[in-house]
């Protein structure tokens, strides 16, 4: 179960009265794995509302030492509402036992890695929002919407990254192998041995993986298959040519 910034699932709770729809987050909601929160609304702010940014400090310094504040583009101090919203969010996390959150990057409440710099000019700086900071401090794992989508995209791509493929990567990196040989590891007398696959097995393995990429994942272009499987274009073409001849 994830706490998710409500705007990512299409709720029009953004300051502008709009949302930040993210299809990967919507999927979690549809699967019943999401609790939606909007800290700014939970803190009592209206929607639409004036945009706000952190000035004179960081989320940490505001929460821990009272240094800095959150102000709207019209200069109104809304720090209290932001802190209240974060506290309400923590209550929801605790009551539901949720230990992970996917939050909208860049927001003065939900930003995980960056926020806007307080000038209301669209300039970003490293930092986090008030709710993101308080959630993290309470032991909740936070992930931005961007990071979550990248993770999903990566896992869709990784057709065959089983253990031996990670080993293969290690071997390639450690020994500077130019050729992308498939390797696998075996445990013998408690010792791990990394070795090449026999040639015919390797060929069949490549064919299987490339066929999966095409048939199961619907990948058409050489570039897509290359990025999904880790094989070079030359290897892919060879396998496809051979398959044609059979
Ligand atoms: S980023 Fe967070 S506070 Fe802002 S609208 Fe979305 S859920 Fe609400």
From TrEMBL:
Which species?
A: Clostridium cibarium
Any idea what this protein is called? DUF523 domain-containing protein
Per its UniProt record, what InterPro entries does this chain match?
2-thiour_desulf
Write down the superkingdom of origin. Bacteria
